[in-house]
Amino acid sequence: MSRYDLFRRRIAPIAFFLVIGLIAKDSCEKDQRTHTTVELVFGAAKPRVREVAVDVVVDGDTITTFRRIAQPDAMIGPCRFELAVPGDHGELRIDVELSDAHHQLTRRFYAVDGGTIQVTIRDDELR
């Protein structure tokens, strides 16, 4: 039996089934994610907000980033994004660029599947 025949008859089928198993495992884990919506709500400071960047951190890993920039001479649009996280809790690291200052905020969250996380950023946090 040559090396090619050994690979073709014994090793290739084992490798094939291992790859199929890994694909099935990855598919199952995607179903275990928590799907939710995050909405940032600004108070009276909303007209001064020029840019918002949000890093979503779960277990120390940044899993996604959201960024919204206001058009020149216009108010920033709705800051709302869909999120799928492994597990149900994490942290939002929010950078808010105002017309006259820059602020960094951190909020912990607990996600409910199909729910909305409303993050209110108070005016006194942006002074």
From the 3D structure, determine the CATH topology of the largest domain.
Immunoglobulin-like
Number of domains: 2
Q: Major beta sheet, specifics? A: 4 strands, antiparallel
Q: Report the order of strands and helices.
A: HEEEEEEE
Main-sheet strand order equals 3-2-5-6
Describe the structure.
Helix content is 23%, strand content 49%. It has 127 residues and is an alpha+beta fold. Strand 2 and strand 3 (61-69) form a beta hairpin. The strands form two sheets. The chain has a four-stranded antiparallel beta sheet with strand order 3-2-5-6, with no helix packed on it. It has a three-stranded mixed beta sheet with strand order 4-1-7. It has one helix at residues 3-31, and strands at residues 33-42, 49-58, 61-69, 79-86, 89-98, 102-110, 116-121. The termini are far apart.
Describe, in short, the structure shown.
This protein has one helix at 3-31; strands at residues 33-42, 49-58, 61-69, 79-86, 89-98, 102-110, 116-121. A hairpin with a 2-residue loop joins strand 2 (49-58) and strand 3. It has 127 residues and is of the alpha+beta class.
